[in-house]
Amino acid sequence: MTATGADLDSLSMVGPYYFPWVTSTTEMALSLASNCSSSATVCATRVAKELPALYHWLVEELGDARVRDWPLMSSPWPTLVITTAYILLCWRGRQVHLQWRLGPHDQQRYLRAVIVFYNAVSILLNAYIFSELLPAVRSYNFWCHPVDYSASDAVALSSASALWWYYFSKLVEMLDSVFFLLKGNPRHLSFLHVYHHSSMFCLWWIGVKYVAGGSAVFGAFVNSVVHVVMYTYYLIAALGPAYRKYLGWKKYLTVLQICQFLAAIVMGINGLRNRCNFPLWMIYAMIFYMISFLILFGNFFYNTYIVQPTNKEKKDS
User: Is the same domain home to 48 and 125?
Assistant: First the structure.
């Protein structure tokens, strides 16, 4: 039996906070500890027996019933396998310098057409997510917005569906890295790039599986808007050198991304202050995750738009 919103409420109230699976996992941990006090063999046997039950409980019992049968949602393994394959591709691609082995004219013609099409699809996909989340955002409570697990509320279901598409968009966006490799630009596969693409896909599996709505909505909504702007920039860049004169606003795109991280941190801290009826560990994880992005993107901005121009001015003078 998969947990409903009411089931989650009954399992997760620890003091004033909404905190899934703490009570049951604590009981299981105490049980394992009591068996581990005798011998290592007994401990290992006990752990091996309990792990399948714990996995079933975490994935099946606590999962949102509405998304249980949606693509990629029944198990975390497909997401983990895809992410691992992506990381290995980026790592190996940086080593061997993969490139589309066509003539200069053919490469310019075909690869550019594919990338333009990909960016257009990404714009439309993020615009769709934005439009589907808009009704929920109109009634969004910025102080605290618990998840509505109702299977009959149209806005709640639409939000859950849009968040699944948002999760799926993170899979699609891994193609950014593939195109860098095909263009012979493996240097663009920085730690920031790979960390961003791999972690977002995994973390949003958790988001859709357990909290497809509520406070998760606004972050996805803002990010989809940012990605519409970002892929519009990439689309113009892919059209060729004749359109470079329209790309002078790249710096402000990075500023926009940094602003969304700051907004997410503020909202997370606000949720903690107001003891929001939302998984506490997710709020903490989101805050630290956004701080990591703030540091990495801030470092990118500093090096790209402050250090490099300064060094160039020194060389020219």
Answer: no
